[in-house]
Each structure stands twice: as structure tokens, then as C-alpha cells.
Design a protein that fits this description.
Length: 101
């Protein structure tokens, strides 16, 4: 689905979570997210451009742990807090981000 609609935030988030939790495929996670750090031409939007708090929240953990990009992680986390404070992901991932401060 993510290949057919690469800028659909629901598809990107579900694929991201599947790669992390089920497949445990870090190489594919990098291929999925690296071009979305800033966007990639006209075909892929940056994660921040997809304007989805749940996706930003989930990706913030991957940005921190896999990419070790604290700036990107913080940017995604702040978007999630601002736009989805009642999101279940924010509740679940709060300790991960608070421990980094």
C-alpha cells in the first residue's frame, strides 16, 4: 500500500510499525524514512509535511534510536505533542523522550 500511496500517513505509519515490531528490519526502516527527513523531490514528502501527529510520534522514536538524530526526533516529538497531545502514542512514548532530556 505504501508503494501505491507513498504520502499516505496511515500507510507510512503502519508500515513503519510493522518494520519495527514484526519484521525488525532496520535496513528497510532506513530506506523508508531517510528520504523523508527533508523530502525527496516531488515524489516523497518529508514526514513533517504529512501532518500526522501519530506518525510523527512513532517516527520520533525511530529517529532517536535508529538514526540517532536527536534534532529530527525532537522536531517530530514536538509536532506530536502540539498536534496530538491525547494520542495514545504520546502517552506510550513519553518516558523515552523525557529520559533524553
Amino acid at each position: 500500500a505504501v508503494e501505491l500511496e507513498p504520502n499516505n500517513p496511515v500507510f507510512v505509519k503502519e508500515y513503519l510499525m510493522w518494520l519495527e515490531l514484526v519484521a525488525k528490519d532496520q535496513r528497510s526502516l532506513v530506506q523508508l524514512l531517510a528520504p523523508r527527513r527533508f523530502g525527496h523531490g516531488g515524489s516523497l514528502q518529508a514526514l513533517s509535511g504529512l501532518e500526522d501527529a501519530s506518525l510523527a510520534c512513532e517516527a520520533s522514536v525511530t529517529a532517536k534510536e535508529l538514526f540517532q538524530d536527536l534534532d529530527w526526533s525532537r522536531e517530530l516529538w514536538e509536532y506530536a505533542l502540539e498536534n496530538g497531545p491525547c494520542n495514545q502514542c504520546v502517552d506510550n512514548n513519553w518516558p523515552i523522550h523525557i529520559s533524553a532530556q
